[in-house]
């Protein structure tokens, strides 16, 4: 790949660094695409002198994301902007980015050098509060920008990750969304009682079952007992820690659970809720509302509930609320990683809802390329064109890896349930991954799990969005309901390492490319669903309109002929594109 010295960016110099004149970028001034840039074009943005604690970086590639669309639609009301007035203090999109260092502040000279390549992990936290790159911190839809402690020194950590010099720009930029995919299959749930947490045990006074709780009952600092039997009361007294407080609240009806929770937890919710012999869907639904952030509900029983409870599916995704269960009588048997897996079942059947979109294709690619992946991958989408595009990218690698790939279109007359039933002989799927932000899709997906199945809510719906989930199956069938949001440094580092080792090709996700002027059209294309894959912007390229990979062979033959089979993006195509459109 080209190094910084191989580029000719403009007419003027600052120090030894050639810079463009002007430096083009896209500010966002409010809600709607009309508030991005100036009259539909990027603006000229000044570059101050590099401070001692800053880097001047060249932005090499930026992947566009549906999160960018959400930010455009919400403006300052986006949760990550905390009510910021963008008309006064604009931000800049672009959180899937790779950059090259072209100037180093004197305080950073022992850490960074000119020519260093970096990928940005955007999910930045300062004292527990998100200050994400591409949101609160202006992002990468610009040719050059300054980067300082807000990214490079946050609570002692740098959110800029070094990139192998042989990795293409597209691959490096798309390590961020791929990190989110990687994170979806790592354990994010807490699977044991919280040390010094608040536990709530809900039972029935006439329940004569002799439960045991061999591990974990000594961890909470507060244990609230509601309607439990004398046996459970004695069990808690015998197993709790000597310093824990036990509070008894009997005669509490489900409609009063919220008042009890507020009084016992100062409004934070219970870290752990144990439901013994759950029989009422209302009881379970009401109790589930009182789970704290990263809280766990443990359901222990032998009989199915009368009805299906309503569950906050938004919180499963964003708050990592966990639902575990077992038949008992050992309550602790529900906990632990052995019973609660987080990755796709080796040799199993994996179903992906919303498979034709960019993230759906990435999830399926990961499943197909995994050494111990599923034997069958079923991709379901309503858009037949997107499924066809996914097939052109994934069919060959599925054949190479011995994976049985089925891409199926659902409709009003052909349900997802009928598709999965036909392909699995009525057994159901081991894993169902939902990439559609719809509570109806989530509820439907949950019904497709085989015994021992896992539901992954990758797409997010707002907290407070309720959907029917049959939680009886957590203790009867050991099914699991999980969710994930975003990624962290370790996730992205793992993806970059796999890409550098040739075990992953993030660039296969690219569906369209464009230069700096094409960023607005790229956002618009996502709104319209124009491409069945990732839109990638190369800020250093000018005069390149947004172009689908399937158009390159006709429109830019010297680039199109470097694509892989199925019009797949390659490092060779990237080099050819750079040579044809780089800033001059």
Folded structure, characterized:
There is one protein chain. With 584 residues, the chain is of the alpha/beta class. The chain folds into 3 domains: 273 residues, Medium-chain alcohol dehydrogenases, catalytic domain (Quinone Oxidoreductase, Chain A, domain 1, Alpha-Beta Complex), CATH 3.90.180; 137 residues, Rossmann fold; 135 residues, Rossmann fold, CATH 3.40.50.720. Helix content is 27%, strand content 23%. α9 packs parallel to α10. The longest helix has 17 residues.
Count of all domains: 3
Q: What is the CATH first-level class name of the largest domain?
A: Alpha Beta
Q: Approximately how much beta-strand content do the residues carry? A: 15-25%
CATH topology of the largest domain: Quinone Oxidoreductase, Chain A, domain 1
Number of helices: 18
In CATH, the architecture of the largest domain is Alpha-Beta Complex
How many angstroms does the end-to-end distance come to? 18 Å
> Assembly type of the shown chains?
single chain
Mean pLDDT: 93
pLDDT below 50 for ≥5 consecutive residues: which ranges?
1-15
Helix-strand makeup class: alpha/beta
How much is the radius of gyration in Å? 26 Å
The CATH homologous superfamily of the largest domain is named Medium-chain alcohol dehydrogenases, catalytic domain
Strand elements, count: 28
How would you characterize the largest beta sheet? 8 strands, mixed
Q: Give helix % range.
A: 25-40%
User: What global shape is seen?
Assistant: globular
């Amino acid at each position: 790949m080209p190094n910084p010295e191989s580029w000719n960016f403009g007419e003027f110099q600052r120090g030894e660094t050639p810079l463009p004149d002007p430096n083009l970028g896209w500010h966002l001034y409010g809600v709607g695409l009309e508030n991005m840039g100036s009259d539909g074009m990027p603006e000229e943005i000044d570059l101050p002198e590099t401070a001692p604690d800053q880097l001047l970086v060249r932005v090499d590639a930026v992947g566009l994301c549906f999160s960018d669309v959400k930010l455009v639609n919400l403006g300052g009301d986006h949760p990550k902007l905390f009510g910021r007035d963008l008309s006064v203090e604009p931000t800049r999109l672009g959180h899937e980015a790779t950059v090259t260092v072209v100037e180093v502040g004197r305080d950073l000279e022992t850490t960074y050098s000119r020519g260093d390549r970096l990928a940005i992990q955007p999910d930045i936290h300062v004292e527990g509060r998100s200050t994400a790159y591409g949101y609160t911190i202006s992002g990468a839809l610009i040719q050059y920008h300054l980067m300082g402690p807000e990214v490079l020194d946050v609570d002692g950590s740098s959110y800029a990750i070094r990139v192998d010099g042989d990795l293409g720009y597209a691959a490096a930029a798309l390590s961020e969304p791929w990190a989110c995919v990687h994170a979806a299959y790592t354990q994010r749930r807490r699977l044991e009682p919280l040390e010094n947490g608040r536990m709530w045990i809900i039972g029935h006074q006439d329940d004569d079952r002799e439960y045991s709780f061999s591990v974990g009952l000594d961890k909470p600092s507060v244990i609230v007992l509601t309607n439990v039997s004398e046996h459970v009361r004695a069990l808690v007294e015998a197993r709790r820690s000597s310093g824990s407080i036990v509070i008894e609240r009997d005669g509490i009806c489900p409609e009063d659970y919220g008042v009890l929770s507020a009084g016992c937890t100062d409004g934070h919710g219970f870290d752990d809720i144990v439901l013994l012999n759950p029989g009422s869907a209302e009881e379970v639904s009401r109790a589930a509302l009182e789970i704290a952030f990263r809280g766990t509900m443990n359901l222990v029983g032998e009989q199915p509930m009368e009805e299906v409870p309503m569950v906050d599916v938004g919180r499963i995704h964003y708050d990592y609320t966990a639902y575990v269960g077992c038949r008992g009588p050992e309550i602790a048997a529900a906990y632990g990683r052995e019973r609660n897996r987080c990755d796709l079942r080796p040799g199993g059947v994996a179903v992906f809802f919303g498979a034709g979109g960019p993230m759906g294709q990435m999830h399926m690619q990961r499943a197909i390329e995994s050494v111990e992946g599923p034997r069958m991958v079923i991709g379901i989408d309503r858009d037949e064109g997107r499924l066809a595009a996914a097939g052109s990218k994934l069919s060959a690698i599925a054949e190479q890896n011995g994976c049985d790939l089925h891409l199926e279109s659902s409709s009003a007359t052909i349900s997802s349930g009928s598709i999965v039933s036909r392909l699995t002989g009525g057994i159901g799927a081991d894993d169902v991954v939902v990439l559609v932000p719809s509570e109806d899709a989530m509820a439907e997906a949950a019904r497709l799990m085989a015994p021992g199945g896992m539901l992954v809510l990758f797409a997010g719906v707002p907290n407070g969005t309720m959907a029917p989930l049959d939680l009886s199956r957590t203790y009867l069938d050991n099914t699991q309901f999980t969710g994930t949001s975003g990624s962290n440094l370790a996730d992205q580092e793992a993806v970059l390492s796999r890409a550098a080792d040739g075990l992953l090709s993030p660039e296969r996700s690219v569906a369209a490319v464009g230069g700096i002027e094409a960023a607005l059209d790229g956002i618009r294309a996502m709104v319209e669903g124009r491409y069945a894959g990732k839109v990638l912007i190369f800020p250093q390229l000018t005069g390149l309109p947004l172009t689908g990979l399937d158009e390159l062979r006709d429109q830019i033959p010297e680039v199109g002929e470097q694509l892989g089979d199925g019009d797949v993006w390659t490092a060779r195509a990237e080099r050819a594109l750079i040579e044809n459109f780089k800033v001059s």
